[in-house]
Amino acid sequence: MIRDNVIFEIITPPQSWREERVRGWASRVAQILDRNAVSHLNLPEVVNETRNGSRAVRFLKKMNQVSFGEIVREALPKVTLIPNKICVRVPTEDFRAWVRGVYEKGIRSLILVGGESHEIDYPGYTVLEAAEFVKGTYPDLRVGGITIFTRSHEAERIVAKIKSGIDFFCSQIIFETANMKQVLSQLDRLTREEGLGFPDVYVSFTPASRIRDIEFMMWLGVEFPSAVLSYLVEQEESIEERTFEVVERVIDEIFDFMERKGIELGFNIEHVMYSNLELSERILDRVLARRSLG
Q1: Residue range 44-58, pLDDT digits in tens
Q2: What is the domain extent for residue 60?
Q3: d(Cα 189, Cα 156) in Å, to the nearest integer?
Q4: Domain count, the chain
Q5: Domain with 204 in it: what CATH number?
Q6: Residue 122, Cβ neighbours under 10 Å: how many?
Q7: CA of 181: how far to CAs of 121, 187, 228, 255, 263, in Å?
């Protein structure tokens, strides 16, 4: 597992930002990483998705995630970049060229992402096909995938991805632990039965400071237990503190689960909204502090 079991995930700037603002954003990210001794930067590929319902936040076309990662690396040379690629969206030859390009830049970790809808006929590799290609061509590349604890048969899905060559998983953002515990307990049993090692799993968290943040996360597919959702949105001026209260409770539950099950998990800290970058450091602080307690 990644040293210290923590990844920091950031959204790359819009293409409309001037270079000075981009570099300022990169500097802020690098400072958070350096201040907290976090060495791995998760770089999602953000596209204009076609999901149901109205988008709570206007889409702004983002700059290339690898290019932005290299700007962060100028400020913090020791950072390890983990670019994400939505493999299904691009023709297979384009995907192969992308992997070759990141490999030639010295990047040795990436995350493969599938499509947002099974009803769309995508032109590219499935995640399983992409993983098999990457591992067959670049065996020293560490390949990651996405796990959604609320999805049916998720433990079986993870096992299939492990068999295709995926080494680690980042979860969708969570605000409760029941589904996570169920999936990971099943996964522990299945991997033992199949003679597979338990994969590295990084559980994702993010802050929220406005109702719009929560609405956007719901549009992205993040699920909130009804009681938690009601509590968070009851008073908009209290959303930030109530979100941290919920997240801190979930983090404590995860550490208790790890101790009880003998399973080691990692953490992926996100900000989702540009305005919440520094707030995400507060969650990072909580994870690091809780880990130090053992």
Answers
A1: 999 987 666 677 688
A2: 3-292
A3: 11
A4: 1
A5: 3.20.20.220
A6: 16
A7: 33, 10, 18, 11, 11
